[in-house]
Amino acid sequence: MYEEIGWPRERIWPPPTPDQIADDVGEIAASGLFGDIQTRRYVWELSYTAEQYIALLDTFSSHITLPSDHREHLYAWIRSRIASRPSQQVRRHWYTILHIARKRDGASPSS
User: Fold this and answer.
1) Which pLDDT does position 31 carry in this prediction?
2) What is the separation of C-alpha 13 from the centre of its chain, rounded to a whole number of angstroms?
3) Do the beta carbons of residue 99 and residue 39 sit within 8 Å?
4) What number is the average pLDDT over the span 2-9?
5) Residue 55: CB atoms within 10 Å
6) Tally of CB atoms within 10 A around 96
7) Do 47 and 94 meet the contact criterion of CB atoms below 8 Å apart?
8) Which of 31, 38, 54, 92 has its CB surrounded by the most CB atoms within 10 Å?
9) SS3 72
10) What is the DSSP letter of 15?
């Protein structure tokens, strides 16, 4: 569908696992300000009705900047696809990377 509105999208399937996604440990360590750096990764799933999912898409810059006729065509297709599901919902997975570190004694940012 995205191709129909002139928005070719590279499909990545299956998506990377959380441990394959880059984190910021290197940058945190390179600052010299922190030690004992730990990383935690969280994955969760939310279900959306068509209108909830479209409201979510309306927060993404890539969708906001679509020409309105393309966006409405896409959203009509999404509504149709979700309505055809027995649950009339779509599931979306989210992930978060949390960094926890201890400030080094006497560490201060250099400008």
Assistant:
1) 95
2) 15
3) yes
4) 67
5) 11
6) 10
7) no
8) 54
9) helix
10) P
Instruction: Count other C-beta atoms under 10 Å from residue 50's C-beta.
Output: 19
Question: What per-residue string of b and e applies to 36-46 under the rule 16 or more CB within 10 Å gives b?
Answer: eeeeeeeeeee
- Tens of pLDDT, residues 54-74: 999 999 988 898 899 989 999
pTM (predicted TM-score): 0.72
Unique residue bearing structure tokens 């949390």:
98
Length of the chain in residues, anyone?
111
Which two structure tokens, joined as six digits, stand for 85?
């599901």
In which band, very low, low, confident or very high, does the pLDDT at 32 lie, cut at 50, 70 and 90? very high
Residue 59, phi then psi, degrees to nearest 5:
-95, -5
Amino acid (1-letter code) at residue 7 = W
Partners of 45 in the beta sheet?
A: 93
Say which amino acid occupies 27. Answer: E
Section 6-31 average pLDDT: 83
